[in-house]
Amino acid sequence: MDALYNGGAIPSNEVSLQLCQYDMLHESFINIGNTEITPKCGTDGKSVAWVQSPTNNQFSINIKSILVNGKLVELPDEFQKKTRERWTRKLDKEKVKKKLQANSPMFKYNYNIKWEKLPTVSIVMFAQTPVTYDNSNSVVTIKLGPRDYMWKYDSEKCKYLTILDLL
């Protein structure tokens, strides 16, 4: 970002990120340079929070809490205290598949996902610079439905949102 801005390729050193719910996913976009405010997904297009750009190609957020189906999840003491090289995964692909099959959102042999049986995941995080009065407490919540954190890309394979590996 800094190189693009300093080189004059973009008008401002900002990135606008518009995320829409699954049925309006086609309206989601990333605007490098934040060149225009575009109302989409039922919003007015105005920013709700600013996050400072990292200088070392890494991005981290300060997660306040995680909710599953609106219920607070107790996070382990070591959550967010390890460096990038020391992250450990609590779930590997095989454990995720067994867990999904045990709770019956996915049949064991044909891998048809019952999306309605999967939970919503809400991530509550601190924003460094709120820009609206409604967000003056510097907290942003992102609520993800099953189709937001898990993508089925063929008859046997799924991709999962990386943050779920930390749970």
Automatic annotation (TrEMBL):
It comes from the Eukaryota. This is Peptidase A1 domain-containing protein.
